[in-house]
Amino acid sequence: MDAEEICRVFHACFEQEYRTRLLGGAAEPLYQPATNEASWHKVFFREDFAASALHEAAHWCIAGYARRQQLDFGYWYMSQRDVEQQRAFEELEATPQGLEWIFSIAAGVPFRVSCDNFDERALALDRFRDMVREAAQEWLAGGLPPRAGRFARALSQHAGSREVFDQTTYRELPG
User: Fold this and answer.
1) pTM score > 0.85 for this model?
2) Over the stretch 54-94, which tens digit does the pLDDT of each residue have?
3) Which residues of the chain form beta strands (DSSP E)?
4) Cβ 7 vs Cβ 155: under 8 Å
5) Closest residue by Cα to residue 18 from 54, 48, 42, 51
6) How far apart are CA 100 and CA 155, in angstroms?
7) I want to staple 164 with a disulfide (CB 3.0 to 4.6 A). Which of 17, 42, 99, 106 is the partner?
8) Do residues 13 and 150 lie in contact, with contact meaning Cβ atoms separated by under 8 Å?
9) Are 55 and 76 in contact (CB under 8 A)?
């Protein structure tokens, strides 16, 4: 699936009930809550990247009501992080990336773990990859949250993928 198809599936699942749109073309990802009852919540992803669309959808699917009322779900973001800041980022980011991996399998989109830091001295990629793999396994063992499950099933149906909820699919992250 490409980003446009992912947006169509997202809109079919959530546009009316949650007044939320998934939109590409952004220089950087951003979640923008609605400003009033007549406006839309907007989940912006980078350019036309399908992986970015799935990643931002994962953040939205696990954000609770209070987080969905805040700009960028109330999270902080720094592109340059020291070791301690990187570990804190990874603790928060493994969960949505585990869900993104499930969405990627459903949509037939290649997945890769992203530490999202340009300072390689702060990275422990193998540790983070293990955290993302464990997060995907935990999502599948415990059941996906309702919005995430709805989106994963819709992506799978649209793409014709079959192994979305099979835990054996998530034993090893792609290279």
Assistant:
1) yes
2) 999 999 999 999 999 999 999 876 667 677 777 878 888 89
3) 20-26, 30-32, 41-46
4) no
5) 42
6) 12
7) 106
8) yes
9) no
